[in-house]
Amino acid sequence: MARSTPLAPMIGPDGVGAGTTVRSPKTAELVAGTLRRMVVDGQLKDGDFLPNEAELMAHFGVSRPTLREAVRVLESERLVEVRRGSRTGARVRVPGPEIVARPAGLLLELSGATIADLMTARAGIEPMAVRLLAESGSAEAFDELDGLLEEHVPSGWQNDTLAETTGDFHRRVVELSGNATLSIIAGMLHEITVRHNAFLFKERRPVSRADFDKLMRSYRKLMQLLRSGDGAAAEAHWRKHLDTARELLLQGLEDVQVRDVMG
């Protein structure tokens, strides 16, 4: 059950203190900043409701329009969700990598980035994540990946959604490595990569049964290396896997730009 969190115990010396009226032209930003820091610090958790308007107004010493402006700032950052007309108020929604995926895709389009750029970046991210996963991954993490290879990825080949299901496998490999920065970058590139591969699989290079079987053998070899704990071997195998995939998928399409497959 979602909780509405009292403010007093959570405002530190750097925040806006209780009973203090902020006399700044950027009052709403200061209030939003304090609430944002509470989310970052875990004092306000995903699913929590902010205290009601009256309590917030009294605590920060601000007017209702200023408070609502502060909440709109957080809403624009996707840190809170506001249901208009609801009596429950604003609810905290901790975002995932998708919050930067769209803006990143736009920046890549505007910069003229090619799909080759994207795949090169991916080849720099995933092998390191694989090494970390091999060296410190849990049995539960490996079981989850095996489960994806048992059912999820094959369903993609059968239903013409292989780009999506293999993309899910690649993303979870990085996420399960435990490195937050790599996970965010991989999540940011995920949608663009999936769209590119879907474009290739459906329009240019349909995946044959032989190609799918070869792909699955490479994935299963990765799982063997992960479970063995041999980080160097796992990293080398995955780097070779990605290099081979890049050569095959980019053949004749080296200059295709990201915008050409983003729709």
TrEMBL record:
The family database entries (CDD domains) matched by this protein are listed as: WHTH_GntR
* Pfam families xrefs: FCD (PF07729), GntR (PF00392)
The GO molecular function terms of this record are: DNA binding; DNA-binding transcription factor activity
**Keywords, alphabetical:** DNA-binding, Transcription, Transcription regulation
Q: Does the keyword Transcription regulation apply?
A: yes
Occurrences of domain HTH gntR-type (ranges): 25-95
What InterPro entries is this protein classified in?
GntR_C, TF_FadR/GntR_C, Tscrpt_reg_HTH_GntR, WH-like_DNA-bd_sf, WH_DNA-bd_sf
Would you say which domain of life the source belongs to? Bacteria
Q: Is Ion transport given among the entry's keywords?
A: no
The family database entries (PROSITE patterns) matched by this protein are listed as: HTH_GNTR
**Region named Disordered:** 1-22
PANTHER family noted in UniProt:
TRANSCRIPTIONAL REGULATOR, GNTR FAMILY (PTHR43537), UXU OPERON TRANSCRIPTIONAL REGULATOR (PTHR43537:SF5)
Per its record, how is this protein called by name?
Answer: GntR family transcriptional regulator
Species of the source: Mycobacterium lehmannii
